[in-house]
Amino acid sequence: MTEPTENNPFAQSFDSLETLAETINEVLGCPVTIEDAGHRLLAYSAHDPHTDSARLATIVGRRVPENVIASLRRDGVIQRLADSLEPIRVPAIDEVGFSGRLAIAIRHKDAVLGYLWLLESGKTLGGRELALFKQAARAAADKMVRLQSARRKSREGLRDFMWMLLHGQFGSEAPIRDKAEQLGLALPAEWHVVVVQAAGAIDERAEQRLLDRVSASRSVRPVLHAVDRAQAILLCAPQLAGADRRAYAREAQAFFARLARGEEDGVPAAVGSSAFGQSYAETPARHREALAVLQTKRLFPRETERAFYYPDLGYYRFLPAIAAQSRAEVFRNESLVRLRAYDREHDANLLSTLATFLAHDSNAKTAAEALHVHSNTLSYRLKRIAEIGGIDLTDMDQKVSLYLALKAERLATDQKG
Amino acid sequence: MTEPTENNPFAQSFDSLETLAETINEVLGCPVTIEDAGHRLLAYSAHDPHTDSARLATIVGRRVPENVIASLRRDGVIQRLADSLEPIRVPAIDEVGFSGRLAIAIRHKDAVLGYLWLLESGKTLGGRELALFKQAARAAADKMVRLQSARRKSREGLRDFMWMLLHGQFGSEAPIRDKAEQLGLALPAEWHVVVVQAAGAIDERAEQRLLDRVSASRSVRPVLHAVDRAQAILLCAPQLAGADRRAYAREAQAFFARLARGEEDGVPAAVGSSAFGQSYAETPARHREALAVLQTKRLFPRETERAFYYPDLGYYRFLPAIAAQSRAEVFRNESLVRLRAYDREHDANLLSTLATFLAHDSNAKTAAEALHVHSNTLSYRLKRIAEIGGIDLTDMDQKVSLYLALKAERLATDQKG
DNA sequence: GGGCGCTTTGTGAAATCGCACAAAGTCACC
DNA sequence: GGTGACTTTGTGCGATTTCACAAAGCGCCC
Question: What InterPro entries does the record tag this protein with (chains A, B) (predicted)?
Fold first, then answer.
């Protein structure tokens, strides 16, 4: 079954698909392109300057342009390639800048892994050359299978590493560095954990799309990643190692804000990031920070609309601890209890008025506007609030106490309900 | 040695010193007073209306008036009583309203436990009656020793109970109720734990003085108590069982405030109280609350000057948790870091200006006055603070974040230093 | 010593606030 | 159905605050 080795220049182990492409180019004297099944560019021969605009666009865009694919599909070329084990001569399609090609599907066990294209620049290949071309396709299939398996292994290794980091299974920094080196992974000096919360479970395709989008940001590099149901967990670092932290932080925030709003070629999703970390032994803490951002944004969407990094949460990051302590205590804030009782008995809005007033920085004008009441109404209510609740609304300590109590109550009720 | 029973009407077990006093009165036909060694009234016969003003004052004040004691001491009466085993006839001292008395020291093993006084109204006792008087003194000594031992036992039982409560050694409410019943102690429905912090270690005498003062408040009843070095720990409840909680809380606060300022016949001391509790199984938590009040008052004396009950601490009670979480986090508040750096480099006061401004409820006028600067100076500094720190000083959330961060920093530095 | 940036203080106009007062609506209670 | 307490909205005015601008002081660097 196998061809004799002496006649087959492709019966060797190639470093990469690039090397194979160059070898095909040398053997057959024509520009060569290797694509995967999704028409993404995998490799191409660079030596030959003769090329058409379709190939140029493919190389620049790392993918066959949509209109070229559409034309080939319309003409039945893709179908014929899928059906045939032999090379097919594809005629030119001038509208899309596609000059004629010799093409063959790269196959492995009935599945099409990709396509091998050859631009017959000027000449026409004969029978022996066609056989060589077929052998080249077989070599490409071989290499692609190997690469895929290597990539899968490497991906699995990195994924396992990420989970071990997230679960804090290393204890100290040294074994983390060792493991990273073993995986051939350069650990950046500064990094942060980003969690992207999708609407539903994230599959491998969606994860890959997300990673591609992040990489395409040109500033954020996803160093490691993992998926936990609807959450993608990314360990991110500056794309450029020497970049200014502040500048990077701004860019990353801007990028993930666009991503969250669905402006990055995807659906809107909630996004939260940890603070920047140096020690990788603290990955679990950073992960919790990113989750805390998500949780806080869920509970206080308006207040934390612009928050992305954990430190941006400000005092909101203390709320869980505050709420927990409040829950453990036997008493409730007397002022709030009284105001709530008054609201209940008189069908009033003192509590929400107080909350709005405080949230608007004790500014009577804006608070009245937000409540859609006359500023005198607010003034009157505040006087009642001060009376009934025994509150001095010019005392920062009292106001902060009330403000935090209100926030903690909201956290408590929202978490229960 | 012992006198024959048939001749000794005091050779029986008396219910109390009061019964003994009444019996002496019946046997000898004169008003009787029994005092302890400190001239505090222990018992007196009530049947006979003939009495002098010194005795009257003693009964009303539960103690022999100072001037009477001074006179007796000056005249060597006390000394003679201490030296003699026999009754002594004390002449009248008209200046202090003291008519003549028959007196004898109540002794036990060389120690004087107290004094027995007899007002010979009109008549003069003879030899047999003097012997009876001596027997009465011996009966008083006997009763006092028994009482003292019973009291000591009961006191020790209560002290042990208090410590068991404070250490949470009961687990649930039922065994606490059982133990209290066994000790003959009625547990009030609502109570609070008060900790009084003295300058130095509290001995038994000081503890007793404190308890007397609290009892004398007429509103606060110390139900149980314990001493831990310089801290007296009191479990207090309303003196009147049915009293209004609010009213009691106010009175207790007022009383302990006076006590703290040293206005209650003692040295100034720090005082803190827990919230009100119902479940005695939560005594340790209430104790911690009272200690938290003391600790907070130590760290933030000005801000918590008027706080007494734990709930009065407001958000200050969250500060330890906030400071602990901040300490665990890798980042510091960026705004404060930048402001501190600016202050250091330019010898400025932006940080303290911000702190003062926030503490004065964002009131430019009062904050400027507190800082001793022109209000425009403050305004200028605030503009700089907003610029350098990237702060919006009209945003309640940002202000609260900064305020808490400043407080937590202060807590952290004060606890370290 | 002069320039420059930062800071403080002073001044005045504009905006805002606090508050008194009035009118009218709501609701519970007699 | 009237009464009175509570609430909302409106008007107006004096006090206060805010803000922009100017002047001057201070310290640093060339």
Answer: CdaR-like_regulators, CdaR_GGDEF, PucR_C-HTH_dom, PucR_C-HTH_sf
Q: By the 8 A CB rule, do A222 and A159 touch?
A: no
The amino acid occupying position B240 is L
Q: C-alpha A7: how far from its chain's center?
A: 47
Query: Which chain D nucleotides are covered by protein, judged by CB under 7 A?
Result: 6-12, 16-22
pLDDT digits (tens, 9 = 90+) for B39-52: 989 999 887 777 88
Instruction: Decide: B197 and B271 in contact? Cβ < 8 Å.
Output: yes
pLDDT over 90 for what percent of chain B?
65
Find out whether B297 and B270 touch, Cβ atoms under 8 Å: yes
> Which residue has the closest alpha carbon to D11 C1'?
A376
* Structure token pair of residue A71: 């034309």
Which residues of chain A have a CB within 8 Å of the CB of B317? Answer: 325
**How close, in Å, is residue B359 to chain A by CA atoms?**
6
Judging contacts by C-beta atoms under 8 Å, the chain B residues touching residue A285 are 328, 330
Name the nucleotide nearest A342; use CA and C1'. Answer: D6
Q: How far apart are CA A257 and CA A314, in angstroms?
A: 18
| Residue B399 contacts A, CB cutoff 8 Å | yes
> Tokens 């024509």 identify what position?
A30
In this structure, are residues B124 and B100 in contact, taking their beta carbons and an 8 Å threshold? no
Residues A149/A62, Cβ–Cβ less than 8 Å? no
Inter-chain CB proximity B399 and A282 less than 8 Å: no
Res. A4: pLDDT tops 80: no
- Distance, in Å, from the CA atom of B208 to the CA atom of B223, rounded to the nearest integer, reads 13
Largest CA distance in chain A: 101
Distance CA A255, CA A28 (A): 46
Instruction: For residue A417, give how far its alpha carbon lies from the nearest alpha carbon of chain B (Å).
Output: 24
- Residue B40's DSSP bridge partners are B63
Residue A364 near chain B (CB below 8 Å): no
* Burial readout B232-259 (b: 16 or more C-beta within 10 A, e: otherwise): bbbbbbbbeeeeeeeebbebbbebbebb
Q: How many CB atoms lie within 10 A of CB B114?
A: 24
Phi (first) and psi of residue A173, to 5 degrees:
-75, -35
Q: Which nucleotide is nearest to B376 (CA to C1')?
A: C9
- Burial, A315: exposed, middle or buried (Cβ in 10 Å; 0-12, 13-18, 19+)? buried
Comparing CA positions, the residue from A209, A179, A212, A207 lying closest to residue A195 is: A207
Q: Binning pLDDT at 50, 70 and 90, where does residue A171 land?
A: confident
- Residue-wise pLDDT for B250-267, tens only, equals 999 999 999 999 988 778
Residues in B touching A320 (Cβ below 8 Å):
none
